[in-house]
Specification:
Rossmann fold, 25% helix, Immunoglobulin-like, 15 helices
Length: 695
């Protein structure tokens, strides 16, 4: 440890402090002839007074005490064990659960003799293990690197050891992250790389929602390994009945085939289907021959009307985006030709309506009068004066007939609905919309989703905004050219996902009728078997204030009629319940609460879907493990080479203790012991003076 003093004045100021102390003590004890002190007493008291005055003067320079501390940090070894089910699917499952586990314990003991060892299990996530049980239903190798960054930043990591079969079915490709690793990544290659005979339902593609009496497609990807020349029967089963059947022949040892089944939705509700392929002799496992899926069949969809004065590419872009969501049925109509009823629609989108050439505003006035959900899209032909009369929540004051090119500036405080991070990142760089050269006045109930950014200047002018007054919801897009956003999305990402998602969320917010019930219970309707079922409940009094005094009784009922009873816990002003994980199946729930003289109930359903990812790919990928090790300057080893791996780590010259130097700064005046030193000096001086008969 090194100590230094730091202050902002020249060094000779310290001499002035000493001079001040010497002058004060000299004037008090050598120039003063009225006191009769002995020579020893004078010298002691003068020394004490000199020290006190000098130190106090030195404090006026605001000195800092600089401490330099050097510490040694021993290297740590991070071990990550693949805990997924794929390791025990193959023929060497007994070796993994018995012999290998014992070998790893010996390996740990050897590492702990020379290093600090931290071991983790990984699969669905990264965690500190008790025992490795190989039950994880997914494998995310890339999560290892995120975990290292989160937990071990600025630590002396000597090496990382990853024991895995190299199969990952979640997260990013770990090769990209291993390339940028600053520490060696040793890999232990587990599993069997030999392709075995196996028939697999590789993937099912289907919509989560369909409509009653619709024919919905189911895409089934069948994979066959080492089964050339053989065949099997593929079936789709619903309610114990086969609703689709096809014979599949395999013409190679690596056979992939996608088969489309057309199924009819004949009943409403959550429906469970099973897809299975008959086993053949010699398969390594039968777990991947079957997959279940659920689909919700509903008998109504929301109707959206796009009303336009004339054809425009904005209308097409909006239509395609909305139709991408099967929950919506879209109709486009020219204003002068529309003879339907507005009441038939959940949302009306007015494109450049009211129009400059338009005289009849009766439909617009009807929509406002009947509190219909509306979205206005403005453009050069919009009648701004007529629009201002419709109480949209925005008053537009035209300054001239000119237009601005305005990009989107996302409002981070917007909270009416959420959007994905991809939309937030993409929207500001998409082509600008053409907005009127205007100023804007916003009603208090108006929230801005995106402001106008004109050139490089961010403004407070709204580009997309929403207002909600009573039961009426209104949205407004103040610029024309939203079709360019759709093209820009495709040019940047090769799809329209972000644009479609944004429009879908806007439509969903505007078209959904708010729940005004006093008791509400929410949970996810579709979850996987490794996810907990979480409920959130809200209870309101007659003033729509949240309350949670009474207990809620919630019952979950399985397909077999087995009931599970819970009492949700209070959380703030609401209720919450983590019911844990449930087996695959369909469940219904019913919640009941008594409040005052009223009894409220809420019912719903959720389905638990299986995860079969670990049984789909059973061939170990040792090339991935080898490349990860090579990218980081390390090596790949096999389970029978753990002793060699241990020596390899011990002999690396770059795995050594690291010395860290830390600088700390402290105001000298904050050191308490200096205060007590000064107090002691003054106290001793005072006692000597009293002893000598002075004051």
């Amino acid at each position: 440890m090194n100590l230094n003093f730091i202050f902002d004045y020249p060094w000779w100021f310290v001499l002035l402090c000493l001079l001040a102390g010497a002058t004060a003590s000299a004037l008090l004890y050598y120039k003063n002839r009225t006191e009769n002190f002995s020579v020893l007493q004078k010298r002691l008291m003068a020394a004490f007074r000199f020290a006190v005055i000098s130190l106090l003067s030195f404090f006026l320079l605001s000195p800092l005490l600089k401490l330099q501390v050097t510490q040694s940090q021993e290297p740590i070894i991070l071990f990550f064990q693949d805990n997924s089910q794929s390791l025990i699917v193959g023929p060497d499952s007994a070796f993994i659960t018995d012999t290998y586990n014992e070998e790893i314990k010996r390996f740990f003991s050897g590492l702990e003799e020379d290093f600090t060892l931290y071991s983790h299990a990984f699969g669905e996530d990264v965690r500190e293990p008790g025992d490795f049980n190989y039950r994880d239903r997914q494998t995310d190798i890339s999560e290892i690197f995120s975990s290292i960054e989160t937990r071990y930043t600025n630590r002396n990591i000597g090496a990382v050891v990853i024991a895995s079969d190299g199969i990952f079915n979640r997260g990013r490709n770990p090769l990209y992250q291993s390339t940028s690793s600053f520490v060696p990544i040793y890999t232990i290659a587990l599993g069997d790389t030999t392709p075995r005979k196996d028939l697999i339902i590789n993937r099912l593609r289907h919509n989560r929602i369909t409509y009653l009496n619709n024919i919905f497609p189911l895409e089934i990807t069948v994979e066959a390994r080492q089964a050339m020349g053989e065949s099997s029967r593929l079936r789709v089963i619903y309610a114990g009945e086969t609703v689709f059947e096809q014979r599949v022949s395999f013409n190679s040892d690596a056979h992939f085939e996608t088969i489309t089944a057309e199924l009819e939705a004949t009943e409403t509700g959550i429906k469970r289907y099973r897809v299975e392929i008959d086993p053949i002799d010699g398969e390594i496992t039968l777990e991947n021959n079957t997959q279940d899926f659920f689909i919700e069949v509903i008998d109504s969809r929301q109707k959206i009307l796009i009303m336009t004065y004339s054809p425009h590419p904005d209308v097409g872009a909006l239509r395609f985006a909305i139709e991408d969501n099967e929950n919506y049925e879209v109709e486009v109509a020219l204003f002068d030709e529309f003879d339907g009823s507005l009441e038939a629609y959940n949302l009306i989108i007015w494109h450049q309506i009211p129009n400059r050439q338009q005289r009849d505003l009766s439909l617009l006035n009807q929509a406002v009068r009947e509190n219909m959900a509306q979205l206005f899209v403005l453009g050069p032909q919009s009648n701004i004066t007529g629009l201002n009369r419709l109480q949209t929540g925005i008053q537009i004051n035209l300054r001239s007939s000119g237009f601005n090119d305005s990009r989107a500036d996302i409002n981070e405080n917007f909270n009416l609905f959420s959007v994905s991070p991809g939309i937030n990142q993409l929207l500001p760089v998409l082509p600008p919309l053409s907005t009127a050269f205007s100023s804007y006045n916003l009603a208090p109930a108006t929230q801005v989703f995106a402001y106008q950014r004109i050139g490089n200047v961010s403004t407070e002018y709204p580009l997309i905004a929403f207002s909600e007054v009573g039961e009426r919801k209104t949205g407004i897009i103040t610029g024309e050219g939203i079709w360019r956003w759709r093209l820009g999305n495709f040019a940047r990402e090769g799809n329209h996902v972000a644009f479609n998602d944004l429009i879908s969320r806007m439509v969903q917010y505007l078209s959904v009728v708010e729940d005004r019930s006093f008791f509400r219970v929410n949970t996810q309707n579709f979850i996987y078997e490794n996810q907990p079922v979480i409920f959130e409940a809200e209870l309101y009094n007659r003033s729509y204030e949240l309350v949670n005094e009474p207990d809620i009784n919630l019952t979950i009922t399985s397909e077999d009629g087995v009931e599970f009873d819970y009492v949700p816990a209070r959380s703030g002003n609401t209720y919450t319940l983590n019911a844990g994980v449930f087996p695959v199946g369909e469940y219904r729930y019913r919640a009941r609460v008594e409040f005052g003289r009223e009894t409220y109930t809420s019912e719903g359903f959720f389905t638990v879907s299986p995860i079969n990812l670990e049984s789909i790919n059973t061939v170990a990928d040792h090339s991935l493990l080898y490349q990860m090790a090579q990218n980081s300057g390390a090596k790949m080893f096999f389970p029978d080479e753990l002793d060699i791996l241990l020596e390899e780590i011990r002999n690396r010259q770059d795995i050594r203790p690291v010395l860290y130097t830390q600088h700390e700064f402290e105001d000298l005046i904050n050191l308490r012991w200096i205060f007590f030193l000064l107090l002691a000096l003054l106290t001793v001086e005072w006692f000597i003076r009293k002893y000598a008969g002075s004051y």
